[in-house]
């Protein structure tokens, strides 16, 4: 392999590792329509690629409007053994997932959850990063 290709390949690997290094780990569940009203936007429709954030992320509303890229990393042994689909989904925080009922770091819309995992799993492990 010529030196230029070797350098290009090393830079590519470094960029991939950097992205992984900054991802937070957590869990995701999903909720079903209707998605309004929401804590952040009231009755304003924000689409279907949305999420409700657990209290630490929600931070008294500071997370409203923030976008997160979510990637399924595996099952939680509470449902389907291999629930993940390839790829990731980007969601907008529009709501609070209130304690003590909140069972995940992020509660995704059914559409967002279905884009990255089998809904029959119910709850998955995720990597998430603000974008």
Instruction: Give the percentage of residues in beta strands.
Output: 25-35%
Could you name the ranges where pLDDT drops below 50 across 5 or more consecutive residues?
A: none
The total count of strands amounts to 6
Number of helices: 3
Oligomer: single chain
The level of helicity is 10-25%
Verbal overview:
The protein is of the alpha/beta class and 131 residues long. Helix content is 23%, strand content 32%. It contains 3 helices and 6 strands. It has helices spanning 3-21, 55-58, 110-116, and strands at 24-31, 50-54, 67-75, 89-97, 106-109, 124-130. The relative contact order is 0.28.
Concise structural overview:
The protein has helices at 3-21, 55-58, 110-116; strands at residues 24-31, 50-54, 67-75, 89-97, 106-109, 124-130.
Question: Topology of this protein?
Answer:
Elements lengths: L2 H19 L2 E8 L18 E5 H4 L8 E9 L13 E9 L8 E4 H7 L7 E7 L1
Parallel strand pairs: 1-5, 2-4
Antiparallel strand pairs: 1-6, 2-5, 3-4, 3-6
């Amino acid at each position: 392999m010529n030196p230029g290709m070797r350098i290009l390949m090393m830079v590519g690997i470094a960029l991939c590792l950097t992205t992984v290094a900054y991802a937070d780990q957590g869990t995701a569940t999903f909720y079903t329509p209707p998605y309004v009203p929401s804590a952040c936007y009231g009755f304003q429709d924000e689409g279907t690629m949305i999420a409700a954030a657990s209290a630490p992320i929600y931070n008294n509303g500071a997370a409203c409007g923030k976008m997160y890229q979510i990637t399924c990393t595996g099952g939680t042994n509470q449902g389907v053994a291999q629930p993940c689909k390839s790829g990731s989904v980007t969601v907008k925080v529009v709501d609070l997932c209130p304690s003590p009922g909140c069972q995940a770091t992020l509660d995704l819309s059914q559409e967002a959850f279905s884009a990255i995992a089998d809904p029959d799993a119910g709850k998955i492990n995720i990597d998430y990063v603000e974008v």
